[in-house]
């Protein structure tokens, strides 16, 4: 039986009013602590608006954190692939794979904040379709193919990467899913991992878990791809203390504003 792995997902929510430089430094120090405790993975999110989720580039955070934490693996949680030129996204993650000595997981998704996509002229209803188009290109590039393709936002001509992955088994790619089946379909089609974000945050997210994995396996079979349940990551909020009473006391500060912000999004 495979060992259960443990990781930490940095959304990246920081309470408004904090010194942002200090908040980012605290994130990096926390990663050092997770590495020391023996955690397997840490994930950084990407957002560009709203004022509280202040990590604009998970790749840059990973590059900084990897210099402090020599053992733990790092995931982009996630790169909003719909916002990016797929060639440059693949190129950056390949470089990061070498900088981390093969400890990079490329998590991708469509982007979640309408205020992010609005600033680059994207309708939020278009981001899932763009994710599908860009992911197809990225998968091919990371597998060493030369790609010519046109999406509604970019066009590539004989595009290819300069580097091969650090490890012989390549770079792990994971697709985000909450309640929509889009992520599960893409993970199955290409034989990728699945990142169930907010697996216990809502009834819809929790109830979708089994259905999503069924979709992953069905799409994998239909496309002659191979998927592995060990590449399925589930995100759930938690706080550990000596007793439940003490845990509730410790999280009393800040939990209401944080929950309110999540619901408002």
Automatic annotation (TrEMBL):
Signal peptide: none annotated. One of its GO terms (molecular function) is oxidoreductase activity, acting on paired donors, with incorporation or reduction of molecular oxygen. It holds the Pfam family Bac_luciferase. GO terms for cellular component: cytosol. SUPFAM superfamilies: Bacterial luciferase-like (SSF51679). Residues 5-252 form the Luciferase-like domain. InterPro entries: Bact_Lucif_Oxidored, Luciferase-like_dom, Luciferase-like_sf. Keywords: Flavoprotein, Monooxygenase, Oxidoreductase. Belongs to the bacterial luciferase oxidoreductase family. This is Luciferase-like monooxygenase. It comes from Rhodococcus koreensis.
